[in-house]
């Protein structure tokens, strides 16, 4: 264990106002202490480390130059906002970060007046900032609005929609492009090459080296609003950039770790009274912490770690992760079928497709943070007979809903959706919870929807998706490790729309969709110990529903309980609709859908979140007993016996 870092100056700074009162020459020391404090805090909690390390100086500079919280700083994604949290009154809670009842890992309006916009998903900051800037005009409350967006987040369509709008409106908006040449993985695409050109091209190198001169040169044109429409002013430093063509003043590239550059230039930008302005800062992800700087992912997301060695704590596991089973199985299938290709939207390691890329570098497409494009791009490939597997987290696929409907489903194209992080994801909290795909895909005609009950089932579902050419097909699986079941060597092709009976009993039928099956079986054991031996079924498919199986369960049991890792409108709703529409609830059968509750559940461990939702073994047993008519006393007495 490393000693707690010594932070004598930071200890005196409890708010941005106190930061602003410091002499400028102290800010370097403050930044160093802030960095040490952040490393120490994240070593205890785990979380997003590299991005925050890269913006320590930028955070100090922004809070020094701008009058926060009156001025608004919007951190895109929000994963880099830990230094901002430390400086804005949350330092004493940093070691609760991402823990139950602790600080969020992202910006959150409810958490602080210094977080004017909540985030978690990327590329929203320019739109939100523009909205704030326009609102401040309408309301006659002048303020500066600063959107800080990374080069990775800058690949998403939303960023361009916002710049297109802002440029035409001449809005007073400051965009800070934090260019660290990293997304989670190194970024892909033409924008990366373009930014690299800006940073290292001969014209721009001159500009960068002349950073001091820039300080003197910037004020004249930015101070003179009358001249701001002159074309030469817009391209003063660079001779015309993409951003200038979109109507922004472009300032940069600047060394984002050099406070002597950042502070005066940001002051000039603040005082310019003009906009929109884009300030291009160049930073290093993981800056100032050698293990992060030297790692391939710059310690984007880490578990708890040893500060001295950088070694991360890895929880022991007896089972492979679902992600790795997906990737391995896709590789197996791809070896047999050259038409299989994989698409990721900037999540090669998170989806396991980095392994696929090692073996099939010409059959993997990392399109950057661009989920909408990823889906329609996959649809295009499918029209030509390719077999695209679009691997996207449930939460990020939300971005591409219209593309799934319009570009895939209506045209009946066989795009395969590998939906990772289904259900609660734990520490990333409600922005990242994969709670909605059962409902949002379930509402679309013609998509086959599957959920894996365990890692062996996932293997079958990958094989099934590979073999299915009749239209779109999706399979979902959660964050984390499998159940430790025996793995088949190869996946079997499942009959479409058919579930399976896992355990035959009576009175109560537990109908599971997804990996709640483990808890369902544990609940079944408890109920069996009470003399109530339930039937357990794994639905496998939400669409098409196994109507024959469900009708049979309803006809032969008093109580049917469905479970799923999804919210309202999902599997339980489909089962309820089927049962009600067919008169199967008109008799003595009682149906109870167990699902993720209709509210945003704060970050905690996945197990805690499911317990709170009543989706663990205890919740399932309680639902079964109360549905059978046990009152609280009878239930307590019964449970005391086992
Ligand atoms: C819509 C969306 N897709 C994917 C992600 C996952 N994600 C979080 S941070 C990140 C990389 C962002 O890169 P950049 O904006 O350059 O920030 P950096 O981490 O480099 O500071 C990605 C892909 C996300 N949060 N939102
Ligand atoms: C900030 C962000 O969106 C990602 O970094 C996300 O936290 C990754 O989640 P996993 O750790 O589940 O891949
Ligand atoms: Mg980046």
From TrEMBL:
Its cofactor is thiamine diphosphate; Mg(2+). It comes from Devosia equisanguinis. It catalyses: D-glyceraldehyde 3-phosphate + pyruvate + H(+) = 1-deoxy-D-xylulose 5-phosphate + CO2. Mg(2+) binds at residues 151, 180. Belongs to the transketolase family. DXPS subfamily. InterPro entries: Dxylulose-5-P_synthase, THDP-binding, Transketo_C/PFOR_II, Transketolase-like_Pyr-bd, Transketolase_BS, Transketolase_C, Transketolase_CS. Residues 320-485 form the Transketolase-like pyrimidine-binding domain. Its EC number is 2.2.1.7. This is 1-deoxy-D-xylulose-5-phosphate synthase. Pathway: Metabolic intermediate biosynthesis; 1-deoxy-D-xylulose 5-phosphate biosynthesis; 1-deoxy-D-xylulose 5-phosphate from D-glyceraldehyde 3-phosphate and pyruvate: step 1/1. Homodimer. It comes from the Bacteria. Binds 1 thiamine pyrophosphate per subunit. SUPFAM superfamilies: Thiamin diphosphate-binding fold (THDP-binding), TK C-terminal domain-like.
């Amino acid at each position: 264990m490393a000693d707690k870092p010594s932070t004598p100056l930071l200890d005196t700074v409890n708010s941005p106002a106190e930061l602003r009162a410091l002499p400028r020459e102290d800010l370097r020391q403050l930044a160093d202490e802030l960095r040490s404090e952040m490393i120490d805090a994240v070593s205890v909690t785990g979380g997003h480390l590299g991005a925050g390390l890269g913006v320590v100086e930028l955070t100090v500079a922004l809070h020094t130059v701008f009058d926060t919280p009156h001025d608004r700083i919007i951190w895109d994604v929000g994963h880099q906002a830990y230094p901002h949290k430390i400086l804005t009154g949350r330092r004493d809670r940093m070691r609760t970060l991402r823990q139950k009842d602790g600080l969020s890992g992202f910006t959150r309006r409810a958490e602080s007046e210094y977080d004017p916009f909540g985030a978690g998903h990327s590329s929203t900051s320019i739109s939100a900032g523009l909205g704030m800037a326009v609102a401040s005009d309408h309301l006659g409350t002048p303020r500066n609005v600063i959107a800080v967006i990374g080069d990775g987040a800058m690949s998403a369509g939303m960023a361009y929609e916002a710049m297109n709008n802002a440029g035409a409106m001449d809005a007073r908006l400051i965009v800070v492009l934090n260019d660290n040449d990293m997304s989670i993985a190194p970024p892909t695409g033409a924008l990366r090459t373009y930014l690299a050109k800006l940073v290292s091209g001969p014209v721009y190198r001159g500009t960068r080296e002349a950073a001091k001169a820039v300080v003197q040169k910037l004020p004249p044109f930015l101070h003179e609003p009358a001249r701001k429409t002159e074309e030469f002013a817009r391209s003063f430093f660079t001779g015309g950039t993409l951003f200038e063509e979109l109507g922004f003043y472009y300032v940069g590239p600047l060394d984002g770790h050099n406070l002597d550059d950042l502070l005066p230039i940001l002051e000039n930008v603040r005082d310019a009274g003009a906009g929109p302005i884009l300030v291009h800062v160049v930073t290093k992800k993981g800056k100032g912490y050698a293990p992060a700087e030297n790692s391939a992912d710059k310690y984007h997301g880490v578990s708890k770690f040893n500060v001295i060695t950088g070694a991360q704590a890895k929880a022991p596991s007896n089972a492979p992760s679902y992600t790795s089973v997906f990737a391995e199985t896709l590789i197996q299938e791809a070896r047999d079928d050259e038409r299989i290709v994989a698409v990721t939207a900037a999540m090669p390691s998170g989806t396991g497709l980095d392994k696929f890329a090692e073996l099939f570098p010409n059959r993997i497409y990392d399109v950057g943070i661009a989920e909408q494009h990823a889906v329609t791009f996959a649809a295009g490939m499918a029209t030509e007979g390719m077999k695209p597997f679009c691997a996207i987290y449930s939460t990020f696929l939300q971005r591409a809903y219209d593309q799934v409907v319009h570009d895939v489903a209506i045209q009946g194209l066989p795009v395969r959706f590998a939906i990772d992080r289904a259900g609660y994801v734990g520490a990333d909290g409600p922005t990242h919870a994969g709670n909605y795909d059962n409902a949002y895909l379930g509402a679309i005609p013609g998509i086959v929807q599957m959920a894996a009950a365990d890692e062996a089932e996932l293997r079958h579902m990958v094989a099934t998706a590979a073999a299915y050419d009749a239209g779109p097909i999706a399979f979902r699986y959660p964050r984390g490790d499998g159940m430790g079941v025996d793995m088949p060597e190869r996946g079997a092709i499942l009959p479409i729309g058919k579930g399976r009976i896992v355990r035959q009993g009576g009175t109560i039928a537990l109908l599971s969709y997804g990996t709640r099956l483990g808890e369902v079986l544990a609940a079944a054991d408890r109920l069996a110990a009470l003399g109530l031996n339930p039937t357990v079924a794994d639905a496998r498919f939400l669409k098409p529903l196994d109507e024959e199986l469900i009708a049979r369960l309803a006809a032969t049991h008093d109580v049917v309980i469905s479970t799923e890792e999804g919210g309202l409108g999902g599997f339980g709703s489909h089962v309820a609709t089927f049962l009600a529409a067919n008169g199967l609830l008109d008799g003595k059968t009682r149906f109870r859908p167990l699902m993720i509750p209709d509210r945003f559940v704060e970050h905690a461990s996945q197990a805690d979140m499911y317990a709170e939702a009543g989706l663990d073994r205890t919740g399932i047993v309680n639902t079964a007993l109360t549905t059978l008519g046990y009152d609280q006393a009878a239930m307590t007495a019964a449970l005391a016996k086992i």
